[in-house]
Amino acid sequence: MSRFVIHGGAPISGVHRLPGNKNAALPMLAASLLTSEPVTLTNLPWIKDVQTMLDLLEDIGAEIDRDTANHSVRICARRIRRTRLNKSLCGKVRSSVLFAGPLLARAGGAILAPPGGDVIGRRRLDTHWAGFTALGATIHPNGCYRLKSAKRLTGCRFLLDEASVTATENLVMASVLAKGETTLYNAACEPHVQDLCRMLNAMGAQIRGIGTNLLTITGVDALKGTEQRIGPDYIDAGSYLVASLVTRGELTLTEIEPSDFEVLERPFKRFGVQWTIDANARTLKLKGKQKLKTSGDLNETIPSLADGPWPMFPSDLMSVLIVLATQAAGTTLFFEKMFESRMFFVDHLIGMGARIVQCDPHRVVVTGVSPLTGTRVASPDIRAGMALLIAALCAKGETVIQNAGRIDRGYESVEQELRRLGARIDRQED
């Protein structure tokens, strides 16, 4: 167990280079199982969830060459020794379920323990299993999930009952080696789903409609190896932007993907935030000491900020935007539509002095500006943990955040990077 100790009040300023997208890296690691040839991934974030996925790959027979200094990895799944995934490792990450599609397509089956990950509400797998069944697989849930295909999967037309990111990724990976054509309607189209599809096409897959909710996949007999760069993490970008804003700092983000900020710009503008983007240089500049004020809807009614599938506001930034709202003059209703337990962390913010009313599991009303005071809290999940860390950066006095390891699952060397940008933060180990 480790904890962060933060002394608030120091501006977060400087230059922050965006790491590779965590949510792209995880399915791309799983996709390496679809070929017997080497796959190299660059711009890989060295976070706990990535390390667990690599451990799972090694456990079933893949050869792994890690280059931590250059944030890259070479994977060669020439031989798959087993299709039963390690139960303990599966319990550490939600993304362990992403091995189902590649193993079904390449090895004809898989045995998976229930996946772990953050407890932010019910995270159903029904869409995955329904899609696999439509492709010709059979699934037997009995403490673990036993998936099997008696022969090569067969393409089909499948309507996802929800625009699930991981279900879309799983079904795309299962379909690229299936016989015939598969169409996935109501598919997720987040940037990390697009990254995975582009990687698969570089390996020889035939995927059309990338970036839309209708994907058409023509199955091929085999895929080849590739070298692929993982795109930048816009959730990391949003988190560091909020850290700088609430501490009155001035920040430059580098290695950005400008199109990602089409989605992020409007919710940030709600709080008076302004930035400039140089698309050619792939940089974003945030001026310091911005006046944060919530802008109302037409006729100055209280605005509502709701999340949803891309290109709506991403759920993974809901927690940090709530912290931003505590430091902006005005009132905002936040509506978390996707996960019924994500909002419970606001109790910690209320304990720090935030003026927040939790209406129900999905909605909170935040009124700012609220001076925050340091206290002792615990990180319940990756994104809430980062939100509490940001709150601590602008709070008066000392804050101790237990369960720092939860934040490590999604943010690489977070205390080192924040310290480089001016934060007074230390990690302590039990």
Walk me through what this model shows.
There is one protein chain. By secondary structure, this protein is α+β, with helices and mostly antiparallel strands. It folds into 2 domains: 2-19 and 232-429, UDP-n-acetylglucosamine1-carboxyvinyl-transferase, Chain; 22-229, UDP-n-acetylglucosamine1-carboxyvinyl-transferase, Chain (Alpha-beta prism). It has 14 helices and 23 strands. The chain has helices spanning 22-31, 48-59, 87-90, 100-107, 126-134, 165-175, 191-202, 234-246, 261-269, 318-326, 346-351, 382-394, 404-408, 414-420; strands at 2-7, 14-17, 39-42, 63-67, 72-76, 109-112, 138-141, 145-148, 157-159, 181-185, 206-208, 214-218, 226-229, 251-254, 275-278, 283-286, 304-306, 330-335, 355-360, 363-368, 376-378, 398-402, 424-429. It has a 4-stranded mixed sheet, with helices on one face. The longest helix has 13 residues, at 234-246. It is globular, with a radius of gyration of 22 Å. The termini are close together. The mean pLDDT is 95.
Biggest pleated sheet: 4 strands, mixed
Structural class designation: alpha+beta
Low-pLDDT stretches are none
The assigned CATH architecture of the largest domain is: Alpha-beta prism
Count of extended strands: 23
What is the compact description of this entry?
The chain is an alpha+beta fold.
SSE order and pairing:
Blueprint: E1 2-7, E2 14-17, H1 22-31, E3 39-42, H2 48-59, E4 63-67, E5 72-76, H3 87-90, H4 100-107, E6 109-112, H5 126-134, E7 138-141, E8 145-148, E9 157-159, H6 165-175, E10 181-185, H7 191-202, E11 206-208, E12 214-218, E13 226-229, H8 234-246, E14 251-254, H9 261-269, E15 275-278, E16 283-286, E17 304-306, H10 318-326, E18 330-335, H11 346-351, E19 355-360, E20 363-368, E21 376-378, H12 382-394, E22 398-402, H13 404-408, H14 414-420, E23 424-429
Parallel strand pairs: 2-14, 3-13, 9-10, 17-18, 21-22
Antiparallel strand pairs: 1-22, 1-23, 3-5, 4-5, 6-8, 7-8, 10-12, 11-12, 14-16, 15-16, 18-20, 19-20
